[in-house]
Task: structure prediction
Amino acid sequence: MKTYKKGILPVGFKASGISCGLKRSGKPDLALFFSENPALASCVFTTNDILAAPVVLSKAHLKNNSSFQAIIANSANANCFTGSAALKDAGETARVLAKALGLRKECVLVASTGIIGKRLPVLKIKRGIPEVIKKLSSQGIDKAAKAIMTTDTFAKIFSVKFNVGAKEITVCGVAKGAGMIAPNMATLLSFIFTDAQISQGALNKALKQAVDVSFNSITVDGCMSTNDSVMLLANAKAGNPLINQGKNLNLFTQALSLVCLELAKMIVRDAEGASKFIKITVKSARDQKTAKAVALNIANSNLFKTAVYGENPNFGRIASAAGSCGAGIKEGNLKIKVSSLKKKDIDVEVSLNQGNSGAVVYTSDLTPEYIKINAEYN
Result:
């Protein structure tokens, strides 16, 4: 398996990114991802009760359609919490794009990220659609990745290549996210593409497993967004034997999980105002659910996160956070190891001595810069 810290779009995919005027800065704010032939789709969305219109629309398209060819995503505006207008604007975006591409609107998935509660300037998006289509390219993934950024400081891209039989398969993903990061999932958008020939059931199973160990295993501030979307398209252009189960599905899941995990780690490393990258490993738990709950409790503790920022070895904060999630931890069984707080990458290992299960969660420290960024974000 070969890995690349760059975007290598699979066969049959194109992407582009432009500025259509949503950002005052003039930076790119509209991205398009396109498959030359119909592709299977599998998606995971936020579990927030307040759903942004693009999530509602994309869910409806997934329910009523079995193949997809385009994803359009804008930054700077979440298209959320503006009443019935939000769904109308999302639908109009899909309709205009589909017409321009010669597709049914149900073949389009829509995503947005940015400010909640402001009407989407859909006219600007509609005016930008001809240009973003014109600039579609097999080399356009970098521009698309930049167009979905909000408070991100760098574009997040990762690719993997591997073989099934004699056929080479590519999995390429991009993501955005830096704040409002918490399962399930985070203020993140991630778009992943593969030319693998794979069944719908296998694709769904692989994505669920990949998201569980990546995007649902990170937290920056414990805040869940309204727009979180992970969208995976598979267009079968690699011509490999159908992946349905067994070792080939395991291999595909491994590749997909690697792409998702690397993107998730990039999100934590780019966390708003962060100065530390923290890996929390919980071992010897009675089951995986308990292990993950303890890890997330520690990762979401503001006392722990500020202590790491201050390089203050007050590990009682870890013990307190671990013990507060109702896991029945005994003081004499709890073992804590922490690497040097002077370094940028911090490792925290917590042993519960209850069983044989474990979990890993990634987080960042909490700094004055995080407060400044979010106090001024509007």
